[in-house]
Amino acid sequence: MSEFDDLKKKIELTKNKYKSSLPQNNNNIIGMAFRIGIELVAAIFVATFIGYYLDKWLGTKPIFIIILFIVGVAAGIFNVVRSAKMINKG
Amino acid sequence: MATNPMHQFEVHRIGPSLSISGVDVSFTNSSLFMLISSILIITFFMIGTRKVNIVPDKIQLLNEIVFNFITKMISDTAGPKAKPYFPFILTIFLFILTLNMIGLLPYAFTVTSQIIITFFLAVVIFIGVTIVGFAKNGIGFLKIFAPSGVPIFLFPIIVAIEIISFLSRPISLSVRLFANMLAGHTMLKVFGGFVVSLGIVGGWLPLSFSVALTALEILVAFLQAYVFAVLSCIYLNDALNMHH
């Protein structure tokens, strides 16, 4: 019977542990979820901005803006994947 | 004018117009609310630490909760090396939180709905983190742009991507806070306008929406301050603990 009691205690303990850690964890996840959308847009925006001014400076009208736009999309996706990994880690 | 949902975001001068060498530095409603929130934070801590008991009273307990919350956040995200930056993170978090929360009060001005304010905060963090990174790692901080184990023909692309993603940090940090506050407050005002225009008969539905939205806005106000602080910690972590 004492084994049963021990198990009961263990379950109680684990339950309490989860109860106290759950809201904090939840909070973190919602917070991280807010990141993702803007992360993608920001990278594309910054890259295109740099491309536009490089073109203006060097007089190579469409080349840098196209290259940097593509790099920006890649960087944005990179950022999103990185944030998603962070959420998975907890 | 009062029904225009964007009217609440207008910055206007309070008192005399001042200018230093052509730059307008007059006191505005934005400055007023920043001042109010700073004073609130200072009084909160002054009262809380006035006489420190082993068994804390209510205000002291609140102080301790805030302290523990930030300490835990920093040690979770940036590790023990980030401990010296505790005052900075605490200040950033409390400042944004108070500004967001004060903005929810009727007739109050939401300072964080101005992109220039959030962008300035983000740029300060960005430059600060870059300086910390170079100070702690020297020129080795540039390794942040060059992850190990990349094939040589992919190297230039990866470096370009990493640089862009590094430079996009202040934009994403500031736009997130700004957009959330702006959108939330505009929504509140629009639904508030519906209540007035639909009157006593049809106004109940938007009123209930308004109540629900206010609750959501309180959550968003807290979360955005939290996200801002957590991301500063994550960036600090990149600068302090270089592992790739």
- Mean pLDDT across all amino acids of chain B: 87
> What is the molecular shape of chain A?
rod-shaped
- Given as residue ranges, the uncertain stretches of chain A (5+ residues, pLDDT < 50) are none
Helicity of chain A, in percent? over 70%
Annotation field: number of helices of chain B: 7
- The first-to-last residue Cα distance of chain A is 38 Å
Count of helices of chain A? Answer: 2
Global morphology of chain B: globular
Structural class by helix and strand composition of chain B: mainly alpha
Order of strands across the main sheet of chain B:
1-2
Largest sheet of chain A: none
Task: Give helix % range of chain B.
Answer: 55-70%
Beta strand % of chain A? under 5%
Cα distance spanning the termini of chain B: 55 Å
Q: Report the strand count of chain A.
A: 0
The total strand number of chain B stands at 2
Mean pLDDT of chain A: 80
Low-confidence stretches of chain B: none
Report the order of strands and helices of chain B.
Answer: EEHHHHHHH
- Give the topology string of chain A: H per helix, E per strand: HH
Greatest contact between two chains:
A-B, 25 and 22 residues
Explained architecture:
The complex is a heterodimer of chains A (90) and B (244). Chain A has 90 residues and is mainly alpha-helical. Helices cover 96% and strands 0% of the residues of chain A. Chain A is rod-shaped and about 85 Å long. Chain B is 68% helix and 2% strand. Chain B is built from seven helices and two strands. In chain B, a hairpin with a 2-residue loop joins strand 1 and strand 2. The N and C termini of chain B lie far apart (55 Å). Classes of the chains: A mainly alpha (90), B mainly alpha (244). At the A-B interface, helix 1 and helix 2 of A face helix 5, helix 6 and helix 7 of B.
